[in-house]
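Exercise (ungraded).
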Amino acid sequence: MDVSLPGGAAAAAVSLIDILEWLQTSGLSHFIAQANHLLVAGLQVIHVFGLIFLLGPLILICLRVLGLVLRDQPFESIIGQSRTLSLMGLGLSLTSGVFMFLSAPLHYYGNRAFDAKMVILLAALISYALIFLWTPMRLRAHAGLARAHVLLSLVLWILVCMAGRAIGFV
Amino acid sequence: MSRLLAIAETIEQSDLGTAIAEGRYAFPIIEGIHLIGLSVAVGLIFLVDLRLIGIFLPSVPVRELHRQLQPYVFAGFALIVVAGILLFASEASTVIVSPPWPFKAFFFTLATVNALYFEFVLARRPDALPDRGPLPSGIRGAGLASLSLWVLVIVCGRLIPYIPRWT
């Protein structure tokens, strides 16, 4: 029997808190939090625009996969150009999100809505990557699976939005 | 201004306003719906704007993209407006004294006028929307105006909680 595991897990959890405490007292965190509350507001604005540029093209891809729009247009050109735009949005959202987290790591970590958002975000990102890797092939061979996948992906991003908006309220 | 404030307080103290403000989950859920409607409507409007400017999906005819996305833009827009009215009702007197709010209302009006002008005047001119090749400068201008004005609406909207009063 391995009895060291629970203790090991507790030690790992403590060290995560330690890392967050260190981050919270680090120069960067202080800079973001103290500089001006408008800096945080600016990060929030960028976070929203990232989301809009991430989701707009993704919704277009979903609608095309579901056969609701642009049925006469080749799927490859739509997904190719949408991916570029959507990835730019993802870059903006992730970067601004990381800086928002760094401004107050202990405030975010342990917040139930934030924790839920991170778990759902991980699932949404995996599903997002799979859309670009698999959907063009699947659309021909397994259209039903491709449709279910894009719908699941949209639902996951909607849940990310809802959990994100709840962070300030729980 | 004091009369406006009185009206805002009446709205806020209505059954609807107090129900949203006092419910534990109502406010964040409605804010989430406001954000999702925004991502759908403005996300798709931006795609059409970028097509008008000429940098997104140039091989897809503008008319096709514009007409086929329209129902989803309207659906998202309906979500934003309904959720927006509910949010406003719950904190009207706080919102109207916030400096970004009148700017948001101003840019929102301009963005709406621009969209209607595009729909009913510019797009109806003969040869306004050729399937391929560069679009007329007026059309490209309307796309750029739409993109810029919606950006300003969203920036002002997001700043409301961060800039609560003038002084």
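Further reading is listed at the end of the chapter. For now, observe: The mean pLDDT of chain A is 87. Chain A touches chain B at residues 37-38, 40-41, 44-45, 48-49, 51-53, 55-57, 59-60, 63, 68-70, 72-73, 77-78, 81, 85, 158, 161-162, 164-166, 168-169 (CB under 8 Å).
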